[in-house]
Design goal:
The protein is 33% helix and 30% strand. The protein is an alpha+beta fold.
Length: 157
């Protein structure tokens, strides 16, 4: 009988696994395209929860790109949770915001120019209840991974 390694002993109980990265990427592209095709009138939700469209600069490519993320309003801006469904790694867009924190956010026709910064551990503890209120699966994602899921506080510039 094999013994557990220290990392296996500390791993959370099986809470399911996130979808493969290629599935997330395809869903993201389709969501953004359909939202644009409808002039922003449709595809503003995901499973009944509000989505915002975040336009950012790619860390490596320098290109402007848009991703739909769960909408969590906060102090005239938004919170962006880099959960990637509880995957073991941060989403690619995490590096974009670290490298280029100035972003544009569109939520139901409202455009906001914001600057993103990573929340400290103490700030995150206070922000998780708000994040969970706006998108309940975040609690499951935290339980699914040992990764410390980053939260960006995005405030008006």
């Amino acid at each position: 009988m094999a013994s557990e390694t220290p990392s296996e002993a500390n791993a959370p109980a099986d809470k399911g696994s996130p979808p493969p990265r290629w599935v997330l990427k395809a869903m993201t592209r389709m969501h953004v395209a359909l939202h644009r095709m409808t002039g922003g009138r449709l595809f503003n939700t995901l499973t009944g929860d509000d989505v915002c469209f975040v336009t950012m600069t790619g860390a490596k490519s320098g290109r402007r790109l848009t991703v739909p993320l769960m909408y969590v309003p906060h102090s005239g801006g938004v919170l962006l949770v880099a959960s990637q469904g509880g995957a073991p790694r941060n989403p690619v867009w995490y590096n974009n915001l670290v490298q280029h924190p100035n972003i544009d956010v569109n939520h139901r026709g409202q455009h906001m120019a914001l600057k993103a910064r990573l929340a400290s551990g103490e700030e995150k503890s206070a922000l998780w209840p708000l994040c969970d209120q706006h998108y309940a699966p975040y609690a499951d994602y935290r339980a699914r991974t040992t990764r410390d899921i980053p939260v960006f506080i995005c405030e008006p510039t």
